[in-house]
Structures are given as structure tokens and as C-alpha cells.
Amino acid sequence: MANTTLLEGWAIVLGASSGFGAACALELARNGLNIFGVHLDLKATLPNARKVQADIEATGRKAVFFNQNAADVDKMNRALDKMQDIMKADGGPGQIRVLLHSLAFGTLKPYIADNPDDAISPENMDMTLNVMAHCLVYWTQALVRRNLLGEGSRVFAMTSAGSHRALPYYGAVSAAKAALEAHCRQLALELGAKGISVNALMAGLTVTPALLKIPGHELLMQEALKRNPTGRLTTPEDVAGALVALCHPKAGRINGATIAIDGGEDIV
What we know:
With 268 residues, this protein is an alpha/beta fold.
């Protein structure tokens, strides 16, 4: 029987165990891709990562997960060594079709506080920017150096309206999202000649584990619901469907963009 799936080969999903990463990994698998998932989970949340892996395998695709800090460059390179070995044994094209950065791990502290210990520190700021923005560059660099990204490959990064709006406690994450969008534009400029597109996906307010950690998230949800023209919040599955559509071979000219997947929430 002929292969009727949209995609073939492998995807790397950074932040694959929950939220947008989990939904996108599963939808990519449904559309033909095997998944390398990178996540950082301790004992309490590890069962969810295993469930996502099992759900991917239930589609008939392969799922190889790495429970490690995606922002650690040494660990990144060791994981990539293993990924290359697996792809070689798999006998496929040996190319990463999709790289998705969906890491949501940052410090939620104010810049200014009466007690200096309550304010964000240089270490907090550096960690947040490194995990939520800069490591996209390092993963992309490593994949290009290994000839694992090529004509038709797609690179995506999850951003948010926080990249251009100020929220209490969200300053470092907001800075990271703004930097992430800038990184996507620069990578799009430098990789366009290779046929590799790079785009940022700006989801509307979505109920994910990351959102629930933001102080005052209940009010944010209420306001977003009132503002959204569709009368509902965005879901991880909304984003996953849009991402797969952007992987279509005829969508390759979409490059260097920040694409809203929010039902119009950000325009109101």
C-alpha cells in the first residue's frame, strides 16, 4: 500500500512531555513522523512523559525520548549522537524534518521588589533566556553542522503575546519570547538559501502546565476569553494542527514570520 501520510522521517521536539510540545509531537506522528522527544521531568511528572511516548507509538510511529536538560550543550550533543545512530539504523533519509522548540522553564519574579531577594537575579535572567530562547540557536547550529537539516526542513519555536506585552512577574519570560522571535528571524535569514524555513508560532492564551504557574493566571484566562473573537481559548491541539499545515511542501515560502494561532485574540 502506498504511503499516504503527509510527512516522513524524524522530528525533534524540545519540551515533548506536556502542553504544546506533547500535542505537536502526537500530531506530527499522526502525519507520518517518528519523534525524538527531549524533556526534563522528575518522578512526579515522568508518568505523563511516558504516556505521551506511548500515545505516539500507538500511531505506529517510533518515539525515542531523552529525559535531560535541553539547554545543556554537552547533553545536547550526546543526544544528537544517539539520534544519528538511530536514524542510521532506521535506514531513512537521515534528516530531521521538523525541529520544534517548546521549552517553558523560566523564572517568574518581578524586576523590582522591596526585598532584593524577591527580585529577579542575574542567574534567574540568564537561565530563563538560555532555556526559552538561546538554546533554539544552539540546537539549530548543531543540526546544520551535522547536515541533519536540509531542503524542506522546518524549524518552529513557540512564542506568546508576552513577547510584546507586559505582565506582572513575566518580565524575564517576556524578554525570552522577544529574543526567541528575533532568533527565528535571524535563522530564517541565514538558512533560507538552504531551503530551511524558520518561524515562530504565537499561540493564544492556552491552558498548559506553564500557564498554571503564572501568578494571576485565572484573571489572564478570564480576560483572554472575553477578548477572543472566537469565544474560546486556544488549545494545544489548535497549535498542533497549524504546525502540521505549515509543514506542507507548498508552505515553504512562509519564512521568518511570527504566526498568530489564537483566533484573533491578539488583535483585540
